[in-house]
Write a structure and sequence with these properties.
pyridoxal phosphate binding, Orn/DAP/Arg_de-COase, 18 strands, Diaminopimelate decarboxylase, amino-acid biosynthesis, binds pyridoxal-5'-phosphate, lyase, alpha/beta, about 400 residues, single chain
Length: about 400
Amino acid sequence: MESARIQQLQNLVKEFGAPLYVYDTAIIKNQYHKLLKAFKNIKKVKLNYACKANTNLAVLKYFKSLGSGLDTVSIQEVQLGLLAGFDPKEIIYTPNGVSFKEIKQVIEQGVRINIDNLSILETFGQEIKNYPVCIRINPHILAGGNTKISTGHIDSKFGISIHQLPHILRIVNNTGIKVEGIHMHTGSDILDVEVFLQGAEILFNVAKEFHDLDYIDFGSGFKVPYKKGDHETDINYLGKKLAERFNDFQKEYHKELTLMFEPGKYLVSQSGFFIVSVNVIKQTTSTVFAEVDSGFNHLIRPMFYNAYHNIFNISNPEGRHRFYTVVGYICETDTFGTNRKINEIREGDFLCFENAGAYCFSMSSNYNSRLKPAEILLLDNKPYLIRRRETLNDLLSTTEEISI
Ligand SMILES: *Cc1c(COP(=O)(O)O)cnc(C)c1O
């Protein structure tokens, strides 16, 4: 970690306390433009930030200011997007397993909808007139990554199977539903660009069956490095290859289409820093534990996905390297990192987790009746408090008291 960054994080934790999430918009902006640039050979490209990665209203507003659209998976995310100032047409709602009632409420807002279920498609076509839809196809390719986050495999609940294309077409013909877009999202972590391109080929074949599309949405799965030597999706190579195919396809299709992506992790992961304080050091027969004032209630990815987050001692960046197992205070196994080489940790030091911008705060909970951390947004290097630290009153705010 750079010394200017360490200094900045030290100052922030002094001012706002720990645990603390910090997001740097300079990094978000850089990622956003890097991705756009990779697809510069395509005339119309639209990025829709998949906001489940980080739904703080200020983060959403920042994406709006960049010109991004929004990919949402719940009515609440749609509502947050509207509150952040997005035009309904810039929001795409990609639900799975939700009720038709929720779908009806969402389309009353005029947002775009992506349908991933034949039964819903049929009901939608019969009940809702003159409302174009996008269809989520499952091409059954495995883009790699963690089984919890890969969505393209045969047993996956996501999308409408490519093998059901005849059934999709029958519903479209029977109901007269207008299909404006075709979509796939094969899950996080594109490890192999060629596999992704195979999926794209499948999607082009599907697209031919629909005669008035406006866009093709290739979902996401752009992988970012979490540690040294980690694989990162080669977006420039992907951009070059996909642009060639996309431009050829547009010629065949005789219509200019918009290429869409909906990245979450790629846009925000590296912008985030999570700072915790060290409560105690505990020596056991086999290791040295650094026990911190946080747990999987604040950052669940290590326990849930076996994710690796770099851990840095920002209070002692010059200290000699020692080996630690960093654990939380939750009363069950709650390990952030095992056998990590970290600059010597003393009780009271502040540790920083990197890659804490995506799926960290947004997956946090109040387990053990702990309070959620505060969040800071760095805008032009100036810190803004974008969520205050919770208090006990927040925990009690939904409780109905009865006398027993
Ligand atoms: C979660 C999700 C994304 C974002 O995935 P990342 O790996 O964070 O880029 C995109 N599209 C859909 C439909 C999703 O559910």
